[in-house]
Structures are given as C-alpha cells and as structure tokens.
Design brief:
Rossmann fold, mainly beta
Length: 741
Amino acid sequence: MLASLGRLRGHPRRHPHPHLGGQRRFAALATAVAAVLAAVLPVSAAEAGSRQQGWTGTWATAQHASYDPGTSEVTVRIPVRVSAAGTSVRIRLTNAFTDQPVTIGHATVGRRASGSSVAGPRDLTFAGKGEVMIPAGGQAASDGLRIPVAARSDLVVSLYFPGRLGHVSQHWMGLQTVYWTPDGGGDHAGDAGGDAFTTTDSAFPFLTGVDVRGGPARGAVVALGDSITDGAASTSDADRRWPDYLAARLSGCTTPAGVLNEGISGNRITAGTDGNPSAPERLERDVLSQPGARTVILFEGVNDLSWGGATGDQVIDGMREIVRRAHARGLRVIGATVVPYRGWGDYWTEAKEADRQKVNAFVRDGGVFDGHADFDKAVRDPDDPTRYAAAFDSGDHLHPNDTGMKAFADAVDLAGLGAARDCPSARVRLTPYHPGLPAGRPTEISATVTNTGTRTVTRVTTALRLPDGWTAEAEGKTGVASLAPGASSTAVWRVTPSADAAWGPHAIGVDSSFRQSGRTRHDADSVSADVTPVPSAVRPPYRTFSTADDAQYAQNGDRFAIWAGGRDLAGWKDEKATVHVPDAVPASGSLTARLVGQTGSGPSAKAGIALANDLTAPEKGGYAVLTMSRSYGVEFMTDSDGDGKLDTWAGGGSSYHPAWLRLTRDGTACTAYASADGTTWQRIGTATVPSTAGGGLDAGMVASAVNLDHPGQITTAVFDAFSATGRTTAGGTTTGGTRNG
C-alpha cells in the first residue's frame, strides 16, 4: 500500500517546510555565528574596499545551515550564473555553520560546457597553495585567476574533499542541479567531462561567492530577502529568480553592476531561527562585507507579518535598523514593498493586512529609504489588491511564477540604484502569460515597449525570435517613430507553431532597438510558451479505442495525447479512451509510460496505463489499470475474478506530474510501481489477475474525465516514454525488448 508518493519529489537534504524555517541542526552554534563572523570578516566599508583590491561580487548565496552527508573522498561540481564580467575571477568559501574544520584538497573553476562538463577547468590556489583548511566558523578566498568571464555566463566551481567530509555548511534551496561523485569517488575537480558525477543535489555547499576584477562593473547590488528572493516556485536550472532578471537588465548598462542574491527561505526581519539568522543578524556577513557592494534592495517582511507574529511597527523598526547600519557603511538602501498573500494557507487576516499596508506606506513614503521598488503594485490583482494577479501567481498565492519574478525586476528603477550608469531607457516585454499555443494553429502574441526614462526615445522597432519552422504575421506596425517618457507601444503578431512542433515549452523571444541620447540601444525579452497537441491520427502499431464520450487522439513523435469524457474508470463503470498496442506484454514482461500532464478536467479525472487480454473488450479479463488523479493520487485497480470489472484497489497518497507509471507481469501476478523521476520507484502493490491469458496482453495508455458530477467535461492527458516488452510488431522490437513510440 502506498502511503505517500509526494516524498519522492523532494531531495532528502531539503527541509520539508522551506518557507517556515531553516534546518534545525547545531542550535548551539546559531547563537555564536555573529561573533565568529565578526572575527573573520572586515569591520568597515573603508577597510572592505581597501582589502578587496578592486574585486566586485558577480555571484553570491547566503550560507545558513549544515548537514552531515556521511561521505568520504568526494568531489562536488557547482554551476553558477555570474552577473558581471571580468578578466580575473576568485571564489569565496565559508565554513560558518559547522563545528569542525573542512579541508579543500583541490579546487577548480572553468566555463560550463553542458550539464556537469567543464570547458578547460583551471586550478585555483589559496595563498599560493592548492589545498586549504577552513576552520569551524571561518572562511577562505582563493587567489585571483586570470580568466575572461562574460556577463550572464555560466561558470563551474569544483571542490574535492579528501578524507571524510563532516558537516557541510550550505545554502539548501539552490534551484540549481549540483553534481557529486559517489562516496569514495576521489578527486575529479580537474576533469573536463562529467562522467564521474553520478549523483545530484540542489544545495550549494561551502561556496558563498564568486568575484571578478577587470570588468566594466564598478559595484554590486545586493538583494536581501526571503524565499521569494531565493527563487521559490521559479523554474529550476533556469535562473529565473527576480535578481537574475535584474542582472539581465543591468547587463545592458554601459557601466553595469553585479547582482548578489542573499535570499534565504523563511528569513525574517524581527527574529531568526536555528540555521536561519534574521536579516539584521546576518547583515554584516551577507550584505555589508560583500565585495563592491554599493546598494542593497531590502525585500523582507512577509514572513514576519504572515506567520511570524510581528506587528507592522516591529517590522518598520527592523527596517530602520538595517537602513541605519547600511547608511553608516556608505550603502544606498532601496525598500521593496511587501507583496499580497491572501489565499496562502490560513495566514491572512484583515488585521495582518492592515499591518502590511502600514509597512508598505512606510517603504513608499517614510523618508528613510533612498528609494523604493513597488513589488506589491507590480503583482497585485487590481480587483482584489490583497491577492496576487493570476498571471503572476505560482499557485500557492505567496510566491510568484517566472513572470511574476520578471515583474519584480521590472519594478526596480535602475537609475535609482546608484550602482550602474547609462542604462537603456526603454524596455520590451512579451505577453506575460499564455495558456498554450496549438500546434499548427495561429495564436495572438504581443510585445510592449515602454519608455522608463526621462527623455524621449526614437526609432523604436520590435522583432520576434521564433523556433525553426514557426511563422508570424504582424497585425499592424511593429515600431514607432518616438516614445515620450512613460509612454508605451504594443506590437501584435499572429504566431503559428509548426504542425510538427514538439508539445511542451518553447522559447519565444523579442528584440527591440531604439535611439537614446544619440546612440542605438537594445533590449530583449523571452517567454516560455507551451505548444499544445491538436487531434490527429496515431500511427501503427498503435491503435485507439474508447468507451467514453468525445474521445480524440494525437501522436507527435514519442508523445501521445488522449482527450476523453467518461463517467468513471472503476469497478462500477469502465468508461475510458485508450491508445494501445495489442499483444505487447508476454507472460513475463512490463509496461512503462510517463504521464507528462493532465488538464481541462476535475480533480477526480484519471490517466495512466493498462494491461488486458483485450483492451477493446475488458470483460475478457486479465485486466489491470494504474492511474493518477488529483483526488486519489496513484490508484492500482485489477480484476480479481475474470469478469472484467476492476474490483481490487491499492494506492493513495499525493498526486504529481510528471508521473512515471509501470505495470509488470509475471504469469498471473501483476505489480504496479510509480516514480516522480523514473529512477526511484515506489511499489504500489501486487495483485493476482487469474484470468490472464497465456499469450500477450494488450498494453496501453488510458484516460477518463470521471465526469459523473460534471457531465460533458473532457480531460486531456499527455504521455511519452511508452515502452513494453512483447512480440515483434510493425515498428516494434522482438519479445523481451523495449519499444518506444
């Protein structure tokens, strides 16, 4: 019996409640962190400037917790997206949150090739040596290495740990695949290839910063925040946190600035937790001592007000302290308004909303900050300002989606940062959100250019960037002669994906050029648009059959779509649509497919895989079904007495997509498995299906809307990675092999 499949989705090193608190390890150390750091970090902005010798932060993360991996002789490979360019690079490491020293036996840096591969890794030294021991609570910076680094490029830092690796100081929500060798894997820091890195994580261990020198940047902007700044709910491995989007904007300035992300999930202004110091407690380490720091954007307060028990006045007092200390060190401070959160759990109340409004009024008009970024205004619903607008909501009603992250970055006045000069005045943005682009059919896409500067820009043009084979027809002009300050111009196209475009996300881009102060400047934007299936025929050896209303099908390479009605897929009513292969699984074999997603139906709708003597006539027996639904999670249903009715059940737990589903057959025994990643499988159950024929069973993908309470409702299910062991068929393989569609 499946207790819960939800746990398959997370990495075991992650905290189960990322927004509500840090990892609770080494409680005794947490109170001493500030004192330890004070001993190893610079104590004044002037000293920091002299000691940094022209270094500017180009990437950073806030270390805040630790764990014990229980491994020895391992190498970790950490990809990072830098913000500012330079001709030399160095890394900074910290051991702040452990109670024992750590030795780095070999460290390298290089440009990322792909995945865990590096284009020419270069050795790093520490005070001229290839090895460094960092004491508990200490830090280390490598010597500078002359290597050209482009803005917005990917570097890879590799660290080898000789001997046993004890407790690891880390930033756990990296939203980036980090690669490890297995236990005992040895030193692979100098490898160009990534074959040795066979395990992955998403936490950043020990690495706290990457700095550059010799580039155009003359300072850095530090984003001090909580899980929203940390990137929660943004796309992993895509660098779509709001500081990433801000870095992209700043990279267009003649004198750009680095952007350093110092967000920690669950962080607060008014109090800290074990392994998660409050914003004032970590201000010295994470902001004031950052190389080249010129400006800090303070985006905190929602945790204090929603679940932290703080009043608006307490949050304001904490903000005042942060501003006072930053000003004393010569930094500008931009305040970001607290975003709406009504609908996020049961945390919102009218009294807390009043406190949020009080804090936001202080940020906007309190006269304490050097400027403000109105993140609240950028994403709130105009019809209900206590909530996110749907276009920006990730679905949990607190964290923004990628489009919302971009809206935050757009709300920052680049000129007000004081850390960059001669930035583009105009900005172009594509349609913020679109539910899908049907393959081979036109859909309207728009791009808007806005003059965010104080002077008129001229000769404004826009042009789309589309995947190969796509077409676009402009509906009117795609440029204007001039744009006054604050004015906007929108161009509209009818975009048609190619008929054979792969279903799923595709990048659509727009480029804009304009004249500003006698120079031609450029801006660009891109969005991820989902190509959706359009009904079409499936190819042999696949066949279709339906006992449900309104069934339609499509095939695109190895992907399949099923549209289906149907009152239920259960013992009392078997109404479904199938795409299947006859006689595909012999007496000892298996069926596997990935349910990519399911849309357009109620929470009880089911989609999955099935085996049967005859999927066009389930009453012939040998019938087993494995499905996923939002209401019931994974369901394994079988016919135990040969009448074709699904009368046994196992399963339950959480629903998730994509979902890997597998049915194996050993004579009359059928076993069901499910997986979130296709690697780690959970056994759902085993059942005897006594009427199973001695020959091959039909194997297929199935869907049912389960619309008994919602007549006429249709579900759409998309599958790929279909494989079955079976006899030779047209386009298939021999018995015992695997056939992919």
